[in-house]
Amino acid sequence: MSTKVHLDRAHGLRLLREMLRIRRFEGKCAELYQAQKIRGFLHLYDGQEAVAVGVMQALGPEDAVVGTYREHGQALARGIPMGPLMAEMFGMQEGVCRGRGGSMHIFDHGRRFCGGNAIVGAGLPLALGFALADRMQGRQAVTACFFGEGAADEGEFHESMNLAALWRLPVLFVCENNLYSMGTPLGIAEAETSIWHKAAGYRMGGEAVDGMDPVAVEVAARRAVERIRADGTPHFLECRTYRFRAHSMFDAQLYRTKEEIEAWRAKDPIPRLRDWMERAGHLHAGDMERLEAEVEQEVAEAVAFAEAGTLEPVEELERFVTMDEVPQ
Amino acid sequence: MSTAPARITYREACREAIRAAILADPRVFLMGEDVGRYGGCYAVTKGLLEELGEARIRDTPLSESAFVGAGIGAAIAGLRPIVEVMTCNFSLLALDQILNNAATIPHMSGGQFAVPLVIRMATGAGRQLAAQHSHSLEGWFAHIPGLRILAPATIEDARHMLAAALADPNPVLIFEHIMLYNMEGELDPAVQGVDIASARIRRPGHDVTLVTYGGSLFKTLDAAEALAREGIESEVIDLRVLRPLDTATIMQSVARTRRVVIVDEGWRSGSLSAEVAMRIMEEAFFELDAPIRRVCSREVPIPYAAHLEQAALPQPGSIAEAARGLARPAP
Amino acid sequence: MPSLGADMEAGTLVEWKVAPGERVHRGDIVAVVETQKGAIEIEIFEDGVLRDLVVAPGSRVPVGALLARLDVAAGGPPPALSAAAPAAPPRAAAPAPVPPPPPPIAMPPASRHRVTPAARRRAAALGLPLEGLRGTGVEGAICLADLPQAPPRRSSGFDPVGMRKAIAAAMGRSKREIPHYYLSQTVDLTPGLERLARLNAGRAPPERLLPAAMMLHAAARAVAETPELNGFWENDAFRAAEGVHVGWAVALRGGGLVAPAIRDADRLSLDALMVAMRDLVARARGGGLRGSELTDATITVTSLGDRGAESVLPIIHPPQVTILGFGRIVERPWVVAGAVVPRRVATLTLAGDHRASDGHRGGLLLARIEALLQKPEEP
Question: For the whole prediction, is pTM greater than 0.90?
Answer without folding.
Answer: no
